[in-house]
Design a protein that fits this description.
The protein is α/β, with parallel strands linked by helices. It has 2 domains: about 400 residues, no CATH class; about 80 residues, no CATH class. Helices cover about 60% and strands about 5% of the residues. The strands form 2 sheets. It has a 5-stranded mixed β-sheet, covered by helices on one side. Strands 1-2 form a two-stranded antiparallel ribbon.
């Protein structure tokens, strides 16, 4: 009786910690990170134009993808954000709160999945604490990027797969839920164009005579749903691949051997435990602090969970599928040159959280005292390292203002408006786009888009025009302001 009472108190305490950590996702939103990254402004501006006219910034009606900076942004997040802009109006706070909320939803869904797998409140709450303290997932929820939606969708998909794995036949609910979520994973972020088909292929682990018709229906519906993406890509000069070709090591001159060597090298770099748990991604936009992208206790438990699955649960089809998903998750990012790109590897931290479940269960499923002591130590270390990271994020996050163009609304746009001459022109040289900051911050000031003109490349502004540019200098001009990434001048 006393043991049961002790366990209930333990569960209540851990649930309280989960609630506090979930609420902390809304702390310092939207001040940290400061300012607004150019991609955030692009997403928000298009979400606004969709919310008022059903058109993107170029006038395309209900586009399947959104053209921006020589690439195409994925649609699901933008359309979701447009709903909130329609209700609350456009704003940085609304947008950043949406991303934070999606991060919270992913944590709560992980709690539910862990509970379904373990049937223990303690284990589910442990996973939620681990996920909420994971730098990788926390930082992903701080930016208005399409990828902010991905963890929640992936966990929903894993829940749907787990539910389907318990059914002898896959009927309409399983077919619709799995096909729909595969489609959403494909359209919500660029890695889904490869990762989602691999997840669909992995459903073969559950193949049986009774499930075959349902599984075939999933593949057929999913394949049909991605046909519009192929058509869109062919009609836009393969524009959906532009970003990939800028980031990949694969070139027309590459041999199969070179491609294979490059892939193996980058794949191993992306699963390097030292990089994941100690150094993290070397990109201060996506990762700050002095520790890894995943907390060390979480990674150690996840690796233990993989061992437990291989040794004790390898006959379980669900866990076989999870192993497959973990193996293929780094593939899309491993086709690019960046080492440990957190955004393109966003499926990895989600899957690692799930693998902590069998590890914790194994530690608890014994009368050996040392195992329970280990669990207590892991919880303590997890909270300690996680809170240290949050402290570092609070202190080292704001100095990144220069990356997020924080000075644009504070000094760049005011310097142009001070001349009291409209329209304001924007000139961005090739590869240094920045025009959307003018449209977005002008919108927040209540200024219509016709007050701004984006000059085509190599086109000179009219004499006397006020110009904002991402160029480093201007000719035949009166320089009004020089700031990081931008100058303001009057054409002569």
């Amino acid at each position: 009786m006393l043991i049961g009472h002790h366990n209930r108190i333990q569960n209540y305490v851990l649930i309280l910690v989960v609630v506090l950590l979930v609420l902390s996702y809304f702390y310092q939103v939207p001040q940290n990170p400061p300012g607004f990254y150019i991609d955030e402004s692009s997403i928000c501006y298009n979400a606004y134009t969709i919310s008022v006219s059903g058109q993107d910034e170029y006038g395309a009606k209900w586009p399947l993808y959104f053209r921006a900076f020589g690439e195409y942004k994925n649609p699901i997040y933008i359309y979701l954000l447009s709903i909130f802009f329609r209700i609350f109006g456009p704003g940085i706070l609304v947008a950043r709160l949406l991303s934070a909320s999606l991060g919270v939803i992913a944590i709560l869904l992980l709690w539910w999945l862990a509970f379904r797998l373990s049937r223990q409140t303690f284990v589910a709450s442990f996973v939620a604490v681990s996920a909420s303290l994971t730098p990788w997932l926390f930082e992903n929820s701080r930016l208005v990027f399409e990828v902010a939606l991905y963890p929640a969708l992936l966990v929903l998909f894993l829940i749907a797969v787990h539910r389907a794995s318990t059914k002898e036949r896959w009927g309409v609910p399983e077919v619709i839920s799995l096909a729909l979520l595969l489609s959403l994973l494909t359209y919500s972020y660029s890695i889904g164009r490869l990762f989602a088909p691999l997840l669909a292929l992995g459903l073969l682990f559950f193949i049986s005579r009774k499930r075959f018709v349902g599984m075939f229906a999933i593949w057929l519906i999913y394949a049909t749903s991605v046909v519009p993406a192929f058509i869109y890509n062919s009609r836009h000069d393969s524009g959906l691949m532009n970003r990939f070709w800028l980031l990949t090591y694969i070139t027309p001159q590459s041999s199969y051997l070179q491609i294979g060597q490059g892939f193996i090298t980058h794949y191993l770099a992306n699963i390097n435990p030292w990089t994941i748990a100690v150094t993290g991604e070397n990109n201060v936009r996506d990762h700050v602090g002095t520790m890894g992208s995943i907390l060390a206790p979480t990674l150690l438990l996840a690796l233990l969970g993989v061992v437990v699955v291989i040794r004790r649960l390898r006959s379980d089809l669900w866990w076989r599928y999870l192993l497959f998903a973990l193996i293929v998750a780094p593939i899309p990012a491993s086709l690019t040159v960046t080492e440990l790109p957190q955004i393109r590897l966003i499926a990895v931290p989600v899957l690692l959280q799930v693998f902590t479940v069998p590890a914790v269960l194994w530690l608890l499923d014994s009368r050996q005292l040392w195992r329970k002591v280990v669990v207590g130590l892991v919880v303590a270390l997890l909270l300690t390292q996680g809170l240290i990271y949050r402290f570092q994020f609070r202190n080292t996050g704001p100095p990144r203002w220069y990356i997020f163009d924080e000075q644009f609304p504070r000094e760049v746009l005011p310097a142009a408006l001070a001349e009291q001459k409209l329209p304001i022109y924007f000139q961005d040289p090739p590869g240094k786009s920045g025009y959307v900051q003018l449209y977005w911050y002008g919108l927040l000031r209540g200024m219509p888009a016709n007050n701004f003109v984006r000059l085509p490349a190599e086109t000179k502004p009219p004499s006397g025009a006020v110009v904002i540019s991402t160029a480093e200098e201007c000719s035949d001009c009166q320089l009004l302001l020089k700031s990081i990434n931008y100058i303001v001048y009057k054409a002569e």
